[in-house]
Design a protein that fits this description.
By secondary structure, the chain is α/β, with parallel strands linked by helices. Helix 10 links the parallel strand 6 (205-210) and strand 7 (233-237). Helix 7 (122-140) packs across helix 8 and helix 14 runs parallel beside helix 23 (602-615).
């Protein structure tokens, strides 16, 4: 059974097929003749082309249906057979794939003139109806995904996406446009603008096909790569400008030349690569050879087998790292968060760290400008705490404040300073903070940062260059569990674990039942989860957190109970009793406890830490199991 398509391309490059139309013409089909009719007239020929590409290494093949919508088929008098042609095309490709390769239902432009005079008029309805008829037949034929390709007008692509997303359900959709002019459409629209619009309309993968050859497509991929490292891209270049020789189309670009450029596209984020007009099984085979030369696990071609030699663990086999190896296995790990100061006097934070260490905390975690409020550099402060207090530190690193180059330099600096762990977070928007001139960078988001950290842990940077050493971070991930709708966040956590995260720290919980539910739903993950506990200190504090801090949801009955008391001292007593009871309920079953100092009042979290230690809780015991599984292999 094939793995999930989107999960697969997050970890590897998928090698697709090449041209169908030009290759069929090269096999003797008369130039200009409709080739989609061959699905009915000569199915054996179409089937044989699919087989040739699979033998060449393709792990994704496209149906012979690019122009098989009723508006285009009118030119051949075949509009009444649109459904049959698409259904047959899908069934041929599915049969050729034998369940071993992905089959993409190919959908090209409608043939109508764009832009339309009336976007909501009869012409638009006719175009959408043509797309609907075609896509319904492809899905009925059993395709794994849809590929919308060779679109020149963004508004037409968005119409096709609208229909495709309505019909396809959860099936993936690739949306490719043609960018012939320096990374722009013929009308001058930038590739990044088009890609962003396609993603918003429901595309899972965006990219380009056809155009003016591989060199021009490389420029388009450079533009599309600015969408962010998390966005998978698709690249299907053609083999240059053709000429007609003896009634045959001849394309000039040789396989080795194209393969070198495709390799550059992979470096820019292409996760699905194949060929368009003029490419053949020989091109695809050459693409595969060049892609196999890649050393980075994230760009491994589907179906490749590693060369003989020592096995290098992929992202899912990320090592436990320094922090987890230092945490106790005979008692419940306790991590306590404090915020760096908003000024230059760090004496208070150092005093708090000493008090927390004396109380029995195992590590101090330090946010990086949380809520986009300017604070002292957390990595420098983490080093100071580590060296002066002797306690492990976790530095939160956001994607907001540095570009990809700066993040890599920051990771290297943290390693040089002996930081035990980095918690990868995307970061709160800069516009919500206290620095009006600040802007967010977001070259990568949390997924990309986790991948980057794991690569440094394996001794190389994201460009593939060896670092003459390895980092030893325990890679952490943020986890916002929402009991009413947990599936999306759990899927995100699964992806973070696959990329190399070995533990997660959650947003604050205010219900033991929610903690139990969260642990049950995430039990399948091979990572530790430390539930966050935020000791409330007043009714006002509770209302502020509930209404103004993202990801925090405080039950209404608790807020109402705190509000019954007028004196803040009485509110604090009620809140303190609630927090102690909550901790007592969850400590026997959790992997570790993550205490968040309210308003940097570490005396509160120090007292709670002492009580946890006095109670002698041991927690779930999963840390020891994880360390055994993630222990480095013994040398042979």
């Amino acid at each position: 059974m094939k793995p999930d398509f989107l999960e697969y391309i997050r970890e590897r490059v998928l090698l697709a097929d090449g041209a169908l139309g030009s290759y069929l013409y090269a096999k003797g089909i008369e130039l200009g003749k409709n080739i989609e009719r061959l699905n009915l007239a000569d199915p054996d020929l179409v089937y044989s082309v699919h087989e040739e590409y699979i033998r060449a290494g393709s792990r994704l093949i496209e149906t012979n249906t690019f122009g098989a919508n009723r508006l285009k088929l009118e030119n051949a008098g075949l509009e009444g057979k649109a459904r049959q042609i698409n259904l047959a095309g899908a069934e041929l490709a599915v049969r050729a794939g034998s369940g071993e390769v992905y089959v993409a239902g190919s959908v090209g432009p409608s043939g109508a003139d764009f832009p339309l005079d009336d976007e909501d008029g009869p012409e638009s309805e006719a175009v959408q109806g043509a797309f609907r008829e075609q896509i319904e037949a492809l899905l009925e034929g059993g395709v794994d995904l849809l590929i919308l390709e060779t679109f020149s007008h963004l508004d037409e692509l968005l119409l096709a996406l609208k229909v495709a997303r309505q019909l396809a359900g959860n099936k993936p959709i690739i949306a490719n446009m043609v960018y012939p002019k320096q990374g722009c459409t013929a009308a001058g629209m930038d590739a990044m603008e088009c890609g962003r619009a396609a993603l918003a309309a429901g595309a899972d993968v965006v990219g380009s096909n056809c155009g003016r050859g591989a060199r021009a497509m490389l420029t388009a991929m450079e533009r599309l790569s600015n969408l962010g490292e998390e966005v998978p891209l698709a690249a299907f270049p053609n083999a240059g400008f053709p000429e007609i020789v003896n009634h045959r189309l001849i394309y000039p670009a040789e396989p080795p030349y194209m393969a070198q450029l495709v390799r550059e596209m992979v470096k820019l984020g292409a996760r699905v690569v194949g060929g368009c007009c003029g490419t053949t099984p020989a091109h695809i085979q050459e693409f595969g050879k060049h892609l196999r030369l890649k050393r980075r696990p994230l760009t491994q071609v589907a179906g490749d087998k590693p060369a003989a030699g020592p096995e290098v663990p992929g992202p899912a086999a990320g090592k436990a790292g320094s922090l987890l190896n230092r945490l106790p296995t005979d008692k419940l790990p306790v991590l306590v968060e404090v915020d760096p100061p908003t000024h230059l006097d760090i004496s208070g934070v150092l005093s708090g760290a000493k008090e927390l260490a004396a109380a029995g905390a195992d590590a101090i975690t330090l946010g990086e400008n949380p809520l986009a409020v300017l604070r002292a550099d957390n990595i420098s402060l983490a080093h100071k705490i580590r060296s002066e207090v002797g306690i492990a530190t976790v530095a939160h690193v956001t994607c907001r404040d540095r570009n990809a180059l700066g993040l890599q330099s920051q990771i290297m600096g943290a390693h040089l300073l002996g930081i035990d762990s980095i918690l990868a977070v995307t970061g709160d928007p800069a516009t919500t903070g206290d620095q009006p001139a600040a802007t967010g960078v977001f070259d990568v988001q949390s997924f990309g940062l986790i991948r980057m950290l794991n690569q440094f842990n394996q001794g190389r940077n994201p460009a593939g260059k060896a670092m003459k050493g390895q980092c030893d971070f325990s890679i952490g991930a943020a986890f916002s569990y929402r009991p009413n709708n947990p599936d999306l966040q759990i899927r995100r956590l699964e992806r973070k674990a696959a990329l190399g995260a070995v533990y997660a720290m959650t947003q604050p919980f205010f219900s033991a039942g929610a903690v139990e539910d969260m642990l049950e739903r995430t039990r399948h993950l091979e990572m530790l989860i430390f539930p966050g506990i935020f000791p409330l200190i007043s009714a006002r504090n509770a209302e502020f957190l509930h209404h103004e801090v993202p990801g925090i949801n405080i039950p209404e009955d608790l807020r109402r109970k705190l509000g019954r008391y007028e004196a803040v001292e009485d509110q604090r007593k009620v809140a303190d009793e609630f927090t102690r009871e909550l901790i007592a309920e969850i400590c026997p079953i959790i992997d570790g406890l993550y205490l968040i100092s309210p308003l940097n009042k570490w005396d509160v979290t120090a007292r709670l830490t002492r009580e946890v230690r006095e109670a002698g809780w041991q927690g779930s015991g999963r840390l020891a199991d994880l360390l055994r599984k993630r222990a480095p292999a013994a040398p042979t």
